[in-house]
Please model this.
Amino acid sequence: MGSKSIGKTDVEKLYTITELTREFGISTRTLRFYEDEGLVHPERRGRTRLFRHSDRRIIQNILRGRRIGFTIAEIREIILAYKDPPGESGQLTLMLRRVTEKRDELKQKRKDIEDTITELDLIEEQCLTRLAEIGVGT
Amino acid sequence: MGSKSIGKTDVEKLYTITELTREFGISTRTLRFYEDEGLVHPERRGRTRLFRHSDRRIIQNILRGRRIGFTIAEIREIILAYKDPPGESGQLTLMLRRVTEKRDELKQKRKDIEDTITELDLIEEQCLTRLAEIGVGT
DNA sequence: CATTCTATTGACCTTAACGTAAAAGTCAAT
DNA sequence: ATTGACTTTTACGTTAAGGTCAATAGAATG
Model:
């Protein structure tokens, strides 16, 4: 009801494709690809695409998923699950299993990352030690 | 000097390729690929490959790197950095920069993972709520 | 020795996620 | 009306990390 309500009468800011490519450091090809994949749904003014805030948020989600190694299919699955969780009981329990699966996978990944960070720390230490030796020797 | 010393006289256990594929759930093609890439260096008895403990450990490292989305090139880089850190000062500071880069990348990834886990928790909650509603309704 | 596994090499094949190039349309500014 | 920046569609190209298949070679076991 206030000035922050999002109704049909609001003038929502629309983004052009290059605005978004610049903001996120991706190519136009990538955004068109995501549209082909049904992940974003920009309006059209003539033929040109105009992206909404919701698309922008979805893109952020896609990029996050991409960073942690999810495929487009997996990312789509999560986005859909978030948007409209299934109504039928069987589908719901199935989704619960999938969620548990994914979460376990992510926890393993987190552990792998932490172990690798530790290893990098070790490498760093070795480098610093060597550098100190060399520094002393010269 | 004790029975745990690893000297030339030790009888080290050697692994055949299928032993390793079974242990790690990967294919022989994958192991040969890793050899072509210079990551493992099995001995040969005739033409058959025989892997040592060190190779086995390297394979574990490769798989860990793979899980967190590293490319073979990146994995190789880390393995080499661990095996023989460079001796020259310039190379050392360069490597220190690369280490910092990688670590930052991993920290971002860890954050992404944690955010995604939170999102999965939310989806799970929604599913459980819906299930409870349905359960009540029937 | 014959059979039966298992391994090896070499070659081409596959998939995801875009890259890249071509040809053409849009629109504001000069 | 031309330039220049941006956009579109179409379509073939690329890369990493193996998959798959065929032909061959050892190794082991009855």
Q: What stands out?
A: The interface with chain A takes residues 64-65, 67-69, 78, 81-82, 85-87, 89, 92-93, 95-96, 99-100, 102-103, 106-110, 112-117, 119-124, 126-128, 130-131, 134-135 of chain B (CB under 8 Å). The helical segments of chain B are 17-24, 28-36, 53-67, 72-83, 89-137.
